[in-house]
Amino acid sequence: MRALLLTLAIGCAPRIDPGPVPVDAASQPARLLFQPDDASPNIYVQAVVAAGSSWDRPGSEGLAHLTASALVDAGAGDLSSPELRDALYPTGNQLELIVDKEWVSLRLRCHVDHAELCVDRFADVLTRPRFAPNDIIRLREDAVHAVTDGLTSNDEALGEAVFDAVLYEGHPYAHPRRGRAGVLPTLGDTQVRAFYDAHYVRENMVVGLAGAATADLRDRLAGRLEELPSRPRPDRVDMKPAPVEPGSLTIVQTPTDVTGFHIGHPIATDRNHPDWPALYVAMTAFGAHRQSFGRLFTAIRADRGLNYGDYAYVESYVQQGWTPAPETGVLRRHNHFVMWLRPTSLPNGPFAAKMARSELQRLLASGLEDAELDEVRSYLKGAIPLLATNPGRRLSYALDAEISGTPNLLEHIPAHLDALTNDDIRAALSAHLDPDKVVIVAVSGDAEDLKARLLGDEPTPVVYADVAPSEAQAERDAEVAALGMGLDPTRVVILEADGVFR
After folding, report:
1. Apex 86 CA angle, 82 and 90, nearest 5
2. How far does CA 72 lie from the centroid of its chain?
């Protein structure tokens, strides 16, 4: 009787679809987004692959980036690297590659007259890379240069890389995208081929075709994507960053005569989080990238002339080329809040850091003013459509959303702008940002002096060049100069720039 009741209970239980088993999922066609636009003279073909630098295993840091670089610059199909460049030369375009922590993005734009040529060459790169050993060696040497002399010659890039290393210590995000100089010489075409075979599979990517593309061209691309392996995608434990200890200061000593900062902490949000639109709007008002209206920019650059610019972010921000627009393909599963203070003079370094901390405290205390919210709302209504003025950019945002499982920024932020209130923004800021939990990374030409002044009890006044501040500004300056930074003397580290990522 008991067995019968158990059988009946099981039979009546609700059925839960377990989803496709890995082998079934892997055997499906590659995901292909098709966004035709008859008004465009160009076609845009792109792919995003879950094969960024966070997929490097310990001891192989740099393999993901080296593999991606070799896709576009070590030959494909029947063509060597120079022959592939020559084949694309008549189109006036070349393959574009973006490698970040989570994703690799591959892109090609061509006039419609070269559509079939470009689709076939793009498919060759994605499905039939040659990985010529001599090209791998060349690209590996480029990567070694990038993480040694390349980083030490760029204080701002060095600061960002060290900030990642400190904030994500022990996490796959910790090492530079290009790898570590001591590891790269151990990587060759065998390792590159193995990484490609494991990660560049149908289930692990999304491909897109946009612009003046026809259904026939879509079918041609889909047919070529059938050449991708139908193996299950790689799996890994999604490590969360370890909690950071507040009061940390890491100073990288360089031979320059300036000081720059990255100041922030991890946050448990991405574009799916209900607070993300409020945080995005707040950071636009507080420190919009390469814009002059942000509070940080106004306080440090515009009012005091201390540096070239000061910005703030709540997700990874990579600038698109020489434009101030954000790059796509750089979303992360794990995000952080960061204030980026571009280099200032050695005497003004401590004051700039204190001013940023003070402005953050002010933001958290009062949120945005009503007029400020109205202004940033109006700004974003005009600025967001300008982020994607051609089918290729619109495709990039769609691919980001598809592969990351997050909303499309082009639609998500505009949908929330009118409903956001200052109460929403204050609540989001209070829930996710904390000046007392920040980690500070500085790149400075005088690390010992910076350490002493940030740890000391004496004020660190601003030094003006041939100007006198107003009475109100002088009063504010004195207040900021006397602030403490909440540092723990036992957690202050000085590193030499040379060899920091060897």
Report:
1. 165
2. 21
Residues contacting residue 461 through CB under 8 Å, at least 6 positions apart? 351, 477, 478, 481
Helices (H), 29-89: 63-73, 81-88
pTM reported for the whole predicted model: 0.93
Determine the pLDDT at residue 62.
Answer: 98
Beta bridge partners of 47: 106, 207
Helix (H) or strand (E) holding 474: helix 471-481
Amino acid at site 376: V
C-alpha to C-alpha distances, 77 to 71, 74, 80, 130, 351, nearest whole angstrom: 11, 10, 8, 7, 57
* Interatomic CA distance for residues 233 and 200, integer angstroms: 8
Angle at 158 between CA 331 and CA 144, to 5 degrees: 90
Mean residue pLDDT across the chain: 94
Asked if 476 and 376 touch (Cβ cutoff 8 Å), the reply is: no
What confidence tens digit (pLDDT) does each residue in 429-451 have? 999 999 999 999 999 999 999 99
Say if residues 143 and 184 touch (Cβ distance below 8 Å): yes
Instruction: Compute the distance between CA of residue 409 and CA of residue 415 in angstroms, rounded to an integer.
Output: 10
Q: In whole angstroms, what is the distance from residue 259 CA to residue 255 CA?
A: 11
Residues contacting 7, CB < 8 A, separation 6+: none
Please check whether residue 266 is in contact with residue 241, taking contact to mean a CB–CB distance below 8 angstroms: yes
**Which residues, at least 6 apart from 316, have a Cβ–Cβ distance to it below 8 Å?**
100, 101, 330, 331, 332, 335
pLDDT tens sequence across 308-336: 999 999 999 999 988 889 999 999 999 99
Element (H, E) at 262: strand 258-267
Write the CA distances from 424 to 161, 281, 420, 427, integer angstroms. 33, 11, 6, 5
Element (H, E) at 343: strand 335-345
113: DSSP letter: G
